[in-house]
């Protein structure tokens, strides 16, 4: 069964991951986001207890 032989496939997988990790990923991470996050402080919602009519 040729699919059980890891010789060519392991090298291909290792080469592709090294290419992604060393070349492609730094280029992608260097892009500036078009929609930067706003510098707003998070607001907490006001929670009021629910009055149950049957209690």
């Amino acid at each position: 069964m040729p699919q059980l032989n890891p010789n060519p496939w392991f090298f291909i997988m290792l080469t592709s991951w090294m290419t992604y990790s060393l070349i492609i990923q730094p280029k992608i991470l260097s892009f500036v986001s078009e929609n930067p996050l706003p510098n707003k402080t998070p607001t907490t919602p006001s929670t009021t207890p629910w009055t149950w009519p049957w209690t």
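The two ends are 72 Å apart (CA to CA). Residues 6-29 form the longest helix (24 residues).
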